[in-house]
Amino acid sequence: MSGVIKSIVLLHGNGGPGTIMQTNFHDVAGEPVKSAKHKIDALDIEKGNSKYTIIEGAWLGDKIESIVYEVKFEELGNGGCLIKITS
């Protein structure tokens, strides 16, 4: 249930590369994940590509320093799109 977002707070930047945001999740009994901070590394709206790094909280624990995600939206031509996420 950690995917239930409560709020997203802009901590630094304007939404482009270098921006740091915090995603807060609803409190759910037994769920250890309360929030995650991430940094936008790259954003190309025209091509439908983005790259961001989880830098604090969430699923990092004490063994993982960061998680990098690359997200690509590809138009399918029928009004839909295919989303590819690499971490």
TrEMBL record:
Domain Bet v I/Major latex protein: from-to ranges: 4-86
Matches recorded under Gene3D superfamilies: 3.30.530.20
One Pfam family here: Bet_v_1
Highest taxon listed in the record's lineage: Eukaryota
InterPro entries for this protein: Bet_v_I/MLP, Bet_v_I_allergen, Plant_def-hormone_signal, START-like_dom_sf
Family per record: Belongs to the BetVI family.
Designated name of the protein: Bet v I/Major latex protein domain-containing protein
